[in-house]
Amino acid sequence: MLYGVIRCCLYFRNRAAEQLVGIELDPVKFTPSNTRFQRGSSSIHRRFRNNEITSTPIAGVSYVSTPVMEEDDIVDGDFYLLAKSYFDCREYRRAAHVLRDQSGKKAVFLQCYALYLAGEKRKDEENIELEGPLGKSDAVNKELVSLERELSMLRKNGSIDPFGLYLYGLVLKEKGNEHLARNLLVESVNSYPWNWSAWSELQSLCTTIDILHSLPLNNHWMKDFFLAGAYQELRMHNESLAKYEYLQGTFSFSNYIQAQIAKVQYSLREFEQVEVIFEELLRNDPYRVEDMDMYSNVLYAKECFSALSYLAHRVFMTDKYRPESCCIIGNYYSLKGQHEKSVMYFRRALKLNKNCLSAWTLMGHEYIEMNNTPAAVDAYRRAVDINPCEFRAWYGLGQAYEMMGMPFYALHYFRKSVFLQPSDSRLWIAMAKCYENDQLHMLEEAIKCYRKAANSNDREAIALHQLAKLHRKLGRLEEAAFYYKKDLERMEAEERDGPNMVEALLFLATHCKDQKRFEEAEVYCTRLLDYTGPEKETAKSLLRGMRIAQSGFPSMSAEHFPP
After folding, report:
1. What share of the chain is helix, strand, coil (3-state, %, to 5)?
2. Buried b (16+ CB within 10 A) or exposed e, 332-353
3. CB–CB of 98/82 below 8 Å?
4. Keyword Transport on this protein (predicted)?
5. pLDDT at residue 549 greater than cutoff 90
6. Alpha-carbon distance 287 to 318, whole Å?
7. How far apart are CA 241 and CA 478, in angstroms?
């Protein structure tokens, strides 16, 4: 914790503190009155607690002991404290200037980090001056070259510490030298594994599973946090979920781990479980804003208007000038159908953080609703520039180009989205419909996509019906009957009714009659007699035809059949 304060890595300090509070206390030493919170009744705790997990991470594996870094007692003294004060006031160049003649490791790191942030600040200012707050420009951090030269010399002299290695890796990553950046970050976390920021930067450089497995990382419980997050980014959701549930054996009350489990469940589209976890998080941490935008996405998908309204009011009163708060309020207005106002809040989120991925993607969705496809395309492209693995933005680009009558472009983007999220049936269905477009008319490819969707937990029950219709269109009546029957069974199980059920019953009745399976056809016809539309008369006609075929007698009048 002390290093988080000294070295200005605030994100790392926040995460470390959350895990400290999340560790279950020894009941022998701490009575209920002495515990930090009264949390024994937590439903999340009961749900995810695994009694086989001990307080030692990964039983049977010996972890390397991590040396605690030693600081010079008399280094830089007053100059360091003065520079730290300037740094906290965001006077970065002033802080760096104060430390120009200091040689202690703390002072060297603070000086270099201050210069790096000064360069980032100037880069953002140039972006605004050239293109506006949401514009794109080629502005770069002009301190990177000098920082790389200085940090390289410090490393060669052996006078760089793990935090300096972290900064060196960050500089090289910005300059595009990802391989060396990974090596430096690995060296940093192996020397001092508690720097969450270094793990986070390393995770962003692990773009494939092969790269992840090739990293020579020491065994440490922080490695488990890193792997869980890396698996999540690489869309290995089940592996990520297993890691987080494992870590929960030690960090039993960690809100951070609960939030990460919710994120994984969200990726798996387990919305009911996600909702339970977020409700528990808000009970334990009622002023939490972080990650609540994902909760609002779940409420939006489930059309829980009152719950989303309450959440929007809650974050507005807590901190209305947070990107997450603006996204939640944007979702609220979108659900109300007020798309212009929704866009206003997403743009506000981007003014607060122009790299807010969720805001770019959601704003693209709003522009689609407003039929403003050029603006939607621009928003989606900004999203994939920030994170090329954002499948929702690739899907949105496919939708936009499909609306513009450009199915070949749309198909390209739909393919990218399903590659990134192959377990999402909606993406397969969108690609299948694109194949069905009159310009493409690739029905066999559409059938393959619908089959993928049917095997990917198609919650909307679209794929089976479309498969039946396509096979019927291609004259494959047996295959059509197979999918109509499966679709009918699903509708019965879910107690759904509607035109799809009528269509399935009519086809199956006719098909079974043609195949002389009269008893089965009569069952379907009898069910159609319960309807009041033209399908009832069709069913009567089919029954008459079957009676004639079976008996060889002349046609009976309609009065012989029940009304």
Report:
1. 70, 0, 30
2. bbbbeeebeebbbbbbbbbebe
3. yes
4. no
5. no
6. 6
7. 41
Residues 144, 140: Cα–Cα separation, whole Å? 9
Question: What are the CA-CA distances from residue 490 to residues 473, 486, 487, 497 (Å)?
Answer: 22, 6, 5, 11
DSSP character for 59?
A: T
Q: Which of 225, 212, 147 is nearest to 186 (CA)?
A: 212
Torsion sign, CA atoms 525, 527, 529, 534: negative
Q: What's the pLDDT score for residue 288?
A: 93
Distance between CA 183 and CA 168 in Å, rounded?
Answer: 10
78-104 pLDDT, tens per residue?
Answer: 888 899 999 999 999 999 999 988 888
User: In this predicted structure, which of 157-171, 246-260, 429-443, 508-522 has the lowest mean pLDDT?
Assistant: 508-522
Spatial separation of the C-alpha atoms in residues 504 and 525, rounded to whole Å = 11
pLDDT reported for residue 133: 59
The 8-class DSSP code of residue 34 comes to G
Tell me how far apart the alpha carbons of residues 329 and 223 are, in angstroms, rounded to a whole number. Answer: 36
Could you tell me the end-to-end alpha-carbon distance of the chain, in angstroms, rounded to an integer?
A: 79
Please tell me the distance from the alpha carbon of residue 93 to that of residue 78, in angstroms, as a whole number. Answer: 18
C-alpha to C-alpha distance for 36 and 33, rounded to whole angstroms? 8
CA-wise closest residue to 277 among 256, 247, 305: 256
Place of tokens 């009676």: 547
The b/e string for 17-35 (b: 16+ C-beta within 10 A; e otherwise) is ebbeebebeeeeeeeeeee
Alpha carbons 299 and 313: distance in angstroms, whole number: 14
Count the Cβ atoms, other than its own, within 10 Å of residue 482.
15
Could you give phi then psi for residue 302, rounded to 5 degrees? Answer: -90, 0
User: Do residues 134 and 111 touch, judged by C-beta distance below 8 A?
Assistant: no
pLDDT digits (tens, 9 = 90+) for 142-167: 999 999 999 999 999 888 999 999 99
Place 277 in a pLDDT band, splitting at 50, 70 and 90.
very high
Tokens encoding 358 = 């969720």
What span, in angstroms and rounded, lies between the C-alpha atoms of 213 and 452?
29
Collect all residues with Cβ–Cβ distance below 8 Å to 290 and sequence separation of at least 6. Answer: 259, 324
d(CA 509, CA 537): 13
d(CA 447, CA 461): 15
* Average pLDDT value over all residues in the chain: 84
pLDDT at position 459: 81
Q: What is the mean pLDDT of residues 7-24?
A: 62
**CA nearest neighbour of 415 among 436, 430, 400:** 430
Mean of pLDDT values over 374-389? 93
Q: Tell me how far apart the alpha carbons of residues 402 and 45 are, in angstroms, rounded to a whole number.
A: 46
Residues 6+ apart with CB under 8 A from 284: 37, 39, 42, 255
HEC string for 436-476: CCCCCCCHHHHHHHHHHHHCCCCCCCCHHHHHHHHHHHCCC
